[in-house]
Amino acid sequence: VRLVESGGGLVQAGGSLSLSCVASGSIFSVFAPQDWGWYRQAPGKQRELVASITNTRSTTFADSVKGRFTISRDNSRKRVYLQMSSLKPEDTAVYYCNTLKESWAWGQGTQVTVSS
User: Is pLDDT above 90 for 25?
Assistant: First the structure.
């Protein structure tokens, strides 16, 4: 399984971005039962979990993004999405997806840069 993230870019503070992650090479029976998360790593900081979605579609969010980010999944397409709004400069980071057990090798991530 190869994780491929996309959708990042440069946006002004207050703007929005939609990220997508595909578990390339996965099959439905492997993807669907997993709990998935979006993580981010800012320069000089450790990678942190910002949003998660269980196999029953229950979601949780880090306090820093609560109310601004939403997470969703499409099992048939083996994709996980992160909708980000009201972006802040402190959201600048490389964003990654993986299962909550970090089952797969990390992908290259997608860079999100929020300018003030």
Answer: no
